[in-house]
């Protein structure tokens, strides 16, 4: 099989008034068809100087906000959804117009607004006993988006869909065998979004992400804030291998997917170093000690956060390969290991300690 590689630059310059096409595989861009005004969310006169690259993010959580900021800096029009008025206010203060969304009962006005966008990113996770809340309305979504402007769709999934692999290296062709309910629902959601997007003729991808970390959400932040480990973190304590990825590299992969034609549907988005959580926390604590000597006594929770507990094999050890991402999307990782990722995070931090040594 012939393999091609496309080199993606560190930044992805936009061509004003252009966006990727869903129908012409030999040409990545089509001329502008209409302008868009963020305040009214309606198509306007063609003389409007608005960007024709328009991203709608279903779920403006930790990563959704990071990606939105990245796109906004590059000239994109970006909007999305959240689930509370408090979150909506916070996002509006950052300059985003967002919609309140109850995924179980989405308002038709929100679905209609999606039609005005060229790109759709889905970050909403499945719900136990329900599945993907938006795909409950798959037929409504299909009929609403049928005559819209969407060209590209990506669903953010998880490497948990591979299940227990006994420490083996797994790629996108490795059989999926999830054991936990939410992982099974992730797999169902992957199929649902692929069927929806491909059925409508969009360029459609599923990104299976490792554990997401970045500024404000990392081992360094957990130690400094003395945060108790989450349920997911507790389950990862005993693993020999844990897949993870920095938010900046997820952004890179998404932009590469937008600008690089690909017939593939699924990509693993992980770094090169599936290290155990204990090792990551030990390194994070060393960074803190070097930058703020004597301050780590303020972080007594870090040892318990990193120490292993009773082994939990329900999600299973695995080493996840990112070779398809590199080979076909041309992505060069900014943070191939947790070491460079955590170092970049702590280098940007001001002294967070308020107690004396």
From TrEMBL:
Family annotation (Pfam families): Epimerase
Span of domain NAD-dependent epimerase/dehydratase: 57-269
Skewed-composition ranges (Polar residues): 297-307
InterPro entries from the UniProt entry: Epimerase_deHydtase, NAD(P)-bd_dom_sf
Compositionally biased region (Basic and acidic residues): 309-324
Keywords: Isomerase, NAD
Alphabetical list of PANTHER family matching this protein: EPIMERASE-RELATED (PTHR43574)
Protein name listed in UniProt: NAD-dependent epimerase/dehydratase domain-containing protein
Organism: Salix suchowensis
